[in-house]
Amino acid sequence: MTEKYLVKNQERPQKWAAVFDLDGVIGRDDAAGRFWKSLGLETEYSHLTKTVLAARNNHGKNMEKLTQEVIEKSQITDKQALEHAIRSRWPLPRGTVLSILLELNSHRNIPVAKMQEIGQKLPLTRGAGKLIEALKKHPKIGRNNIFINSATYGPIAVEVAKRLGIPEENVFSTKVNSEKGMLVSTESVNGGINKLKSLEEISRQREIPFTRMLGFGDSPADVPFLAEISKAGGFSFWFNPDSEVIGKNAESKRGKAEIPGRRLEAGERGQGVIVAANSMKHLHSLIDVVLRHEDQGIRREKVRQWLVSHKKYARRSGLPGVTQFYPLQAKVRRSTRVRVNQSRERVRR
Q1: Are both 164 and 212 inside the same structural domain?
Q2: What is the pTM (predicted TM-score) of this model?
Q3: How many CA atoms lie within 13 A of 344 on its CB side?
Q4: CA 160 to CA 165: how far, in whole Å?
């Protein structure tokens, strides 16, 4: 897509930024989950995550009731340490479980290298590498304007960035503290509203407004930053989004949603696409369409035309109240068709 653009546009274009979530977007699954699974603590991680989410849904901002429910239902044996961890991190922004679990297991002397190993081996979404390579060569983006904005642990995210040729300083994730190479604790978790703060920092560093940003995400933790991009006039790609984003209690790629979660509100629709596919390879030409047109009205019409011309893969979303989001269906090999069909079913709901 780069060569075609250069032929028609000789003057220096305004720069854009591409901001990617990691889990479920660049990476095929939950990187932190893989890390705790490698330590034999997968059940403890998943159960604590579900318990905190359910308690937040039941009690909202009532710290006493929420803390009591988590302590009663959690499988963690050190209840006193768990209570302290919850109270010290109130109001428990998304991703807090990553911080709590690392603190409660700091006595295990887990090496930082263990996290780095997960990042080095994390399976990537098919087509993610080629898409990022294309964006690095695009005159409107380039290597220095591609970012990872993730709640996962920093050492994991940095290793993934290295594999993709993304500068380490372009990684915004949950920072970890270590002593003598052993994990001790985390600093602020880069989840939920903190992802929006990271986006603002990206905008300041590169002097690129939200109107010239591409955002890629899939979960409720991505809503704050992707919604802001869309509302400002940038463009958001929801890659196999969770049911908590597109519909209440619908079947999601991570199983049935246990809580209503954070849905997109009417004012957050903006411009974007819901992508239901097992590969990012079909996004190249669509991204080129988005980057070619600065005017939002023209861009919207050109995207509509693109979808019409690709009607073999695309159709208008039937989701209530999400009139400007479109599912993009990918043509895939027979061996992978089951996974794509599951994605299609999620979008229908």
Answers
A1: yes
A2: 0.80
A3: 14
A4: 9
